[in-house]
Amino acid sequence: MSSENDARVSIAASASERGAERGRSRGVSQLADVLAGARAHDRAALMAYLPVGYPSVPASIAAMVAAVEGGADAVEVGVPYSDPGIDGPVIQQAVDVAVRAGVGMRDVLQAVEAVAAAGAVPVVMSYWNPIERYGVERFAADLAAAGGAGAITPDLIPDEAAEWLAAAEKHDLDRVFLVAPSSTEARLRSTTAACRGFVYAASTMGVTGTRATVSDAAETLVARTRAAAPDLAVCVGIGVSNADQAAEVAGFADGVIVGSAFVRAVLDAGDDRAAAEATHRLAAELAEGVRRRAGVAS
After folding, report:
1. What is the pairing mode between strands 150-152 and 199-202?
2. Could you tell me if 105 and 146 are in contact, meaning their C-beta atoms sit under 8 angstroms apart?
3. How far is CA 123 from CA 116, 167, 175, 273, in A?
4. How many helices (H) and strands (E) does the chain have?
5. Which end of the chain has a smaller Cβ tally under 10 Å, C or N?
6. Taking the mean position of all CA atoms in its chain, how far away is CA 180?
């Protein structure tokens, strides 16, 4: 029991210190704030994605907290969904278990609270259907109450997001939409205009998954997106799986998003404790990568 108490004290202290660094007054974007803080230290921010409910709700939350303790600045809290559009096989394998177990939005909000308590910025990653089913206004209110920064909605475009934009504005939440290498200049402008916090640059066309190299299209997409919205942070996801790739992306993006590699670490772990240790280890490795351009020791 003493080790558990020590862990709680450590998490509370971390939350106090890191929360103090981020303004939480109305009108201040938690995501933009943490990205600006990383930029002030000449590095990119590290964002870890993990779905709620694999291998169980408590174990998935423990893995998220471990990623924070390993160095993740923000956590994308994944909402399990039976029909994911961009998730690759690794994420689908974990999410399928959570869906079959009946994991829902209340579990997601519990994870959001835990990530916030651990001292990182929690942002929900969800397809639109679960949010709509839960209730858009209810989701926004409950997410704000849980300490969440906002939501990333990969299958929702700003043109069809009036209800979400209104609810997010009402509850002071960030809204993150996606751009891709195929996005036209007009689409880049309209998408970034609707974003608050950052814009998610999908580095490749296709589904998520670890890759041997980072796509050359990623840097070009970031440059095009910055030209469309110079004051908005751009974070790159899809494909990053190790410190070298994280360092490469950190050279041109404001944030490095890692999903499949974290999920793979959990899938390969033998038990819940091993899963948390694996996510902590991977986060520490990736955190070293995003700091490398500044020459800061891990």
Report:
1. unpaired
2. no
3. 10, 16, 9, 24
4. 13, 9
5. N
6. 17
Asked whether 52 and 259 are in contact (CB, 8 A), the reply is no
User: Distance between CA atoms of 31 and 10, rounded to whole angstroms?
Assistant: 23
**pLDDT tens-digit readout, 84-103:** 656 678 888 899 999 999 99
pLDDT value of position 26: 73
- Provide the residue type at 87 as one letter: D
Mean per-residue pLDDT over the chain, rounded = 87
CB under 8 A, 24+ apart: contacts of 221-225: 221/179, 221/180, 221/181, 221/183, 222/252, 222/253, 223/252, 224/183, 224/185, 224/188, 225/179, 225/188, 225/192, 225/199, 225/201
Active-site residue identified among 69, 76, 172, 248: 76
More confident residue, 151 or 5: 151
State yes or no: pLDDT of 223 exceeds 70. yes
Residue 10 has pLDDT above 60, yes or no: no
Q: Which of 17, 69, 73, 87 is catalytic?
A: 87
Is residue 76 annotated as a catalytic residue, yes or no? Answer: yes
Residue 147, sorted as left (phi over 0), alpha (psi -120 to 50) or beta, turns out to be left
**Strand ranges for 191-238 from DSSP E:** 199-202, 234-237
* DSSP-assigned states of every residue in 175-201: EE-EE-TT--HHHHHHHHHH-BS-EEE
The predicted structure's pLDDT at residue 86: 61
pLDDT tens string 168-200: 999 999 999 999 999 999 999 999 999 999 999
Active site residue 219: no
pLDDT at position 89? 83
Helix H or strand E encompassing 94: helix 89-100
